[in-house]
């Protein structure tokens, strides 16, 4: 290897021609990059995307920027996406960049990766053997991404780091996903991320296009688009290349023929040197690019053709083996190719690449089909003979690609399968899927004896083993489909996973042998995918799987099916059947010693128990699972335990405990790279913070959740919490916008009570703000008809309280009288079906009962005092303030306890002001004004009460008369007749009233007047 590196280093110093030593143009673009470097050095991470057509000068711009960065003391790491046939090497640019960092900062990188070497080895094999959690863990990829971002942030703590990723148009799916994650989550560190791509390659169906659309939505990313050179810039470029001022005619000719493309300018100058630059532009660009290649000596041309088919970079040893030239002949050929500026020695490596990919593509396209196949075969044979010719992490993928393009199915199929296993171990599931699909393509073409010699690779999750000796049992096509289905799900291609599952089930239906276990496994996968895709709830698929395993001996598949049924019931129909399913899942998992499935089922069991009336036992079971999974290193399941525990604690009114446990769970998830799990826990934390009246914290958590969640449901939870805070603070438009976002996220095909009930409840709050009583009644009736499954009281009680409060506030409105008895009957039906397993829900029940009494005109201060007493010890400031407001109102109506009412109003007002609950604050202030009570805390003795006003809103006596008639449902003409004024004057009064009350319509004005007793005699 040292001799090869020496050869590369020697050739790297060979003088090349046709590249201008003068950096032309791009002053604005270079300034943008250097300014980003300055901001990053100050501690603000930067991200830039450089685009332009092939040959326009992206690489030269980046090189100039990197030179400036090095001079400023920054550490530079450069990685390029690799084009290897039709396949990209997974994570290739990140692996290359991390290697560069390891060479430059060996001790620092080792310290930054400490404790996570096994996981990070999937990107940087030099850290050791890849290890860590179960590769089937759905959070594995997200964890790897999070650890990578944290590694870069740690390295950029004490130094400025410049990470450049070139040629994104060739990026593999895993690289695209990692880059998206990096740019979305990078929050701290002195780091600049620069990525480049060819704009002219991005056709409508190019896989990079969705990534570019997503990056465009990121405010933190800056795009730099390179245009072609002007005539003046081409003249300056020619001056640099020729080391002399070019003739005006030459400038005109080159500018016209190159159209301002910097690389084409160089090629045209070079082609003139080769004696072919005076004729008209060739019919194809390829002919122009091949001019200098065809001017090389024969051996050099041969080497160039070999390099063109070997990939983006070809190692010196591999090139020597494939070319079959002597060392001297190879060096001489390479010297000619490098001297002609066609090939470059790779810096910090032992190989060669084309100076520009356009030339490589032209040379590759010029190969004959048989020539291309022969070269790929020779590459594959050389690599099989000496696997050490390439890096271990690239070996399997490159060998598979070479054999595939050699058109040898007998060799290609085993190589492709080996490569699929290697990519799976790196969590590169998208690349694994592509390789498995290639294996399915080759399956029928490969000879039967080759297929018979293949052995099972790595059983997909609980996919059942063959039941016989795996050393002698051949791999089946069905096994390939199982691996592909899991790979597709794990890389996010759920539609493809669903199609693969359907293909497998058709195959099983058509096979002569009966294989219920494998069929059940595929049906369980289909159930999960149906739910994830929003196509349905997945119950039909789970039922089919249950039927298939019925009566069979216990197996891992059996346990997974039962655990799936229990999990489905926990979310959608918690109750006795779900409890039994969870218990059976635990039993079967224990029988077959599938501890991971057992712990999953136990967590489900504990959650159902806590919701079904046995909270102590349920919480104990969940805590036990949390401790065991943490001890086993099953951190994904441990994080799920934190999610379910915090949710159950909130359901029991133990919000402070939930917040504390959530903080621990988020820290666990963060340190283990479990981004999605952290999002679920954070959603629960935001909910509990809202309950505790810590609304600013709740909103901050929800906003952080929106920016970090990778799954849809946590984002829906974030929107729901933001809507709840906004509506409670009187920000109606913002609240409704977040409600619409949450509704879109949750969809309608799989109604899960833990999403639909709070969505409905908060939607009813929005309807209250807009005075839509009919909508509130319709929603309450719909919920009552659907019922409240066990454990959903936490959503049911607030919903019912909103509905009954709306009825009480609208009492006396003529427009609200029709349908009121039915609406109150619906509310009573809801109350009868809701449990009160904790004091917080008992307080809700008391308040609902008294709001019902208020809606029917029979409320009493004594019963409102009981409501206040129930809320006082519960650390629920908002509902307590609302109850105090209602009690004060009742006391003022009954009379005789004015000082007590004043104290209650001051307490409620202080809480509303602290929370920012504007609607409640205004209600309190208006009631106090009507009662002429001072809201200042501890008013000095002898402070006079406020003087009576015509009205707290400044309504004149005539406007109060008009408002009474508006509240009674009168039209402007009827008002005019009753008050002996003209209809026009009545209309003016109504407009003034609406403006003073700050409402948009007569219905809202009437509702506000009744709720605030604006038409009562002042007390």
In terms of topology, how is this protein built?
Elements lengths: L1 H11 L14 H15 L4 E7 L5 H14 L3 E6 L11 H13 L1 H7 L4 H4 L19 H16 L5 E6 L6 H13 L5 E8 L9 H9 L4 E5 L5 H12 L5 H11 L3 H12 L11 H10 L3 H13 L3 E2 H8 L3 H13 L3 E3 L5 E4 L2 H9 L3 H17 L6 H14 L3 H17 L3 H15 L4 H5 L24 H14 L3 H17 L5 H17 L6 H11 L6 H17 L3 H16 L3 H17 L3 H18 L2 H17 L3 H17 L3 H17 L3 H14 L3 H17 L3 H15 L6 H17 L3 H14 L6 H17 L4 H4 L2 H13 L6 H17 L5 H11 L5 H18 L3 H18 L2 H13 L26 H11 L4 H8 L3 H15 L4 H10 L8
Parallel strand pairs: 1-4, 1-5, 2-3, 3-4
Antiparallel strand pairs: 6-8, 7-8
Helix pairs in contact: 2-3, 4-5, 7-8, 8-9, 10-11, 10-12, 11-12, 12-13, 13-17, 14-16, 14-17, 15-18, 18-19, 19-20, 20-21, 21-23, 23-24, 24-25, 25-26, 25-27, 26-27, 27-28, 27-29, 28-29, 29-30, 29-31, 30-31, 31-32, 31-33, 32-33, 33-34, 33-35, 34-35, 35-36, 35-37, 36-37, 37-38, 37-39, 38-39, 38-41, ...
Question: Can you characterise this structure?
Answer:
This protein is mainly alpha-helical. 66% of the residues lie in helices and 4% in strands. It contains 50 helices and 8 strands. The chain has a 5-stranded parallel beta sheet with strand order 2-3-4-1-5. The protein has a 3-stranded antiparallel beta sheet with strand order 6-8-7. Helix 8 (173-185) links the parallel strand 3 (161-166) and strand 4 (191-198). Helix 21 (429-443) runs antiparallel to helix 23 (477-490).
